[in-house]
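Diphthine synthase
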Amino acid sequence: MLVFLGIGYSIRHLTLEAIEYLRKADKVVIDRYTSLYEDDLSALAEYARGELVYASRKDLEGEGMNSLIEEARFKTIVLAVPGDPFIATTHDSLRVEAVKKGVEVKVVNSLSILTLIQSRLGLQAYRFGKTVTLVYPDFFKPYSTIETIYENLNRRLHTIVLLDLRLEREKAMTIPEAVEILLKLDDELENRLDNTLAIGVARLSWRDERVQADLLPRLVRYDFPPPPHSLVIVSNPLPVEMEGLKLICKLPN
Ligand SMILES: C[S@@+](CC[C@H](N)C(=O)[O-])C[C@H]1O[C@@H](n2cnc3c(N)ncnc32)[C@H](O)[C@@H]1O
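Predicted structure tokens:
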């Protein structure tokens, strides 16, 4: 059996169901390339009966993917994924391949960054548009990201902007870097983000989390703890959301 197991963002987020499957596993494969985790991932060893190994992207794609699926034919293999396993990750093809090859698949859900952002910031969940990921503009400029932000703004919807993570190269985009990239693109296109409200979200749900709202260009002035970071671009907040921005997201007067 291949178990896709969400581990949330901290060892405190493990569900009873997650612990049950960690205990049953012959082997726990830890994805440590799709997100950062508050605790040292070796803390999972306390709950796991079987061997614990760390996987890079190549271990879960191509040949690596096929050998994992074959192993799961006869053993209980748990793939432990930060957040919720199928939200904004690259594990869908592994699941589809396993099902195609007749290997039993189980999904154990946990807290995702999308859920955390929507429920913690005081913005209404049904007022969010399409989520985007902002990547470093090294190979191409991420025009499609800013175009989606514009489309969401036109539809009076907020945008969650996840930020580039290249953990194998120890690179994680910060809020000030993201603001700079977005404002440069905006200068080339519609020039409308200077007066747009945004929320910088750093280490949400970690013990030292910081959430700060302000006009997008002003977010570079704040001292956020290290990544993981995200941004929320706010569109036409309702009065109750405006109260949330002031009280929960500390929007200055
Ligand atoms: C690929 S997504 C993670 C998806 C994960 N499967 C989930 O369900 O949450 C990784 C991105 O989420 C954001 N992120 C993750 N944890 C975060 C946190 N605690 N606070 C702020 N942003 C976070 C960052 O932008 C990071 O680059």
